Amino acid sequence: MNRDQFEGGLRNLKGRGRTALGAVAGRARPQVEGAYEQVAGVAQAAYGRTRDRAEDLYEDGYRLADEAVSRGRHLRDETLQRGRHLQEEARGRGRHLRHEARQRGRELVLRADENRGTTLALVAATAFGLGWLLSRRR
Q1: What transmembrane ranges does the database entry give (predicted)?
Q2: Residue range of the domain that includes 51
C-alpha cells in the first residue's frame, strides 16, 4: 500500500462522515462537499492501486528482460561450445578421409604400375567411349 492509497482511503472516510453529518443536520452544502471528498478519495486510492500495479509490472518486465539476457548468454555460450566440438570433429574426419584417400590412391598407382598393359587398355577404351559419346551429340 502506498501513500496515495492510504490518503485516498482516509479522504473517502472523511467524505462519508461529512455527507452523513450534512444529512443529519439537513444541510445540502456539507453533503455535496462530503460526496466530492468521497469521489476524490476513491479516485486517489484507485490512482495509488494503479501506480502499485504499474511498479509491479515494471519490476516484472525488468526481471524478464534480465532473465532473457541471461538465457541469451547461456545459449550463446552453449552454441559456441557445440560449434567448437563440431569443428574439431570435422577436422578429425577430414584428416581421416584425406589419409584414407592417399592410401587408396597409392594402392591404385601400385596396381596400375603392376598391370601396365591392362591399365593402358582401360584408359584407351575409356577415352574412345567418351569420344564416341561426345561426337554423337553434335
Answers
A1: 117-135
A2: 3-102
